[in-house]
Amino acid sequence: MSVRDTLGVACLLCASCSKPAAEQAQPLRRYPLHGEVLRLDPQGHIATIKHEKIGDWMGAMTMEFPVKDPQEFSALREGETINGTVFVEDLSYWVSGIKEDAPSK
Question: Alpha helices of 18-58 — where are they, by DSSP H?
Fold first, then answer.
């Protein structure tokens, strides 16, 4: 058996051991979000939110979140405190289910 044949067999073995791409994808994860809307980008439907720690996914920081639902995005206001859900799917993430956080009395 030549080196070329050995490499070919090794490649076939490796390919047969790997999982299909559909099985490697991580399931959709959901995390509660609490934060303040600092900026809104109407062109990209992006909300910059200063948020508290997001579960085991992200520490407290300020970052941009896509908002997929146009009606939900149009209801956001800079300076308001919100609660919502962050959805994480592989390397993609977005925020939805956004509600204004009622001020404490």
Answer: 21-24
CATH number of the domain where residue 35 is located: 2.40.50.320
Strand partners, 83: 34, 99
Task: Identify whether 1 is part of a domain.
Answer: no
Chain segment 1-21, per-residue pLDDT in tens: 554 554 444 544 455 555 555
84 Cβ neighbours under 8 A, 6+ residues apart: 32, 33, 95, 96, 97, 98, 99
Would the pTM of this model clear 0.90, i.e. be above it? no
Q: How far is CA 85 from the centre of its chain?
A: 10
